[in-house]
User: Fold this.
Amino acid sequence: AEGVHPAQVRLVFEELLAHRLGAMQRRSERQQRRAFPISRSSELWPQLRGALGFFPTNAQSRVIEEVLTALEAPRASLRLIQGDVGSGKTLVAVAAVLAAVESGFQAVIMAPTALLAEQHFNNFQRWLRDVKVPTAWLTGRLNTAERSVACQRLARGDALVGIGTHALFQNDVSYRNLALVIVDEQHRFGVRQRLALREKGRGSSEIPHQVVMTATPIPRSLDMTFYADKDISV
Assistant:
């Protein structure tokens, strides 16, 4: 009953080992996939940072540096950003998005609910308006005409940043050159959902870099086992 019988311990060990090996295999396969290298923003991010009205914290600056370094690689990165509510994860996301845009690519931000997606849209639209980066809003709440316009803007590349819910990876949605996918509250999306959005970015053999964010605390021992396919920034 207490789970200490040798047979129970063995079953638990084998299950964790299988999960660990599977995660390591996914990591290895992802690192073999090509991605579009995203250079650091030399204009847009410094311009926005100067207009924020506050200085990023040391932790925000450190995580931004970790993310931007990963995006420069020609291999697909997958980084988990873990931080409490209000710790500045969105600011990190903005810095990554501006790097992608300045490098000539598109980026998307996906949230699990329309309410959270709308919060992101309002924040991003306010910040990106200052640096004249066009955005598109895409959720299941749009009527047919609004959805058609949003899809056309994303497909043509008129909108450089897409923000919304799972509607972003529906079959009729396409992108001109998607190079960065940011997923908020990533644990609320299934693996297939995240992969579906990632595959939207295929140019030839390239796939987008991925940044996933969560406010759920992740102990070191847990992330070593269950998040072995990701790099982690706190």
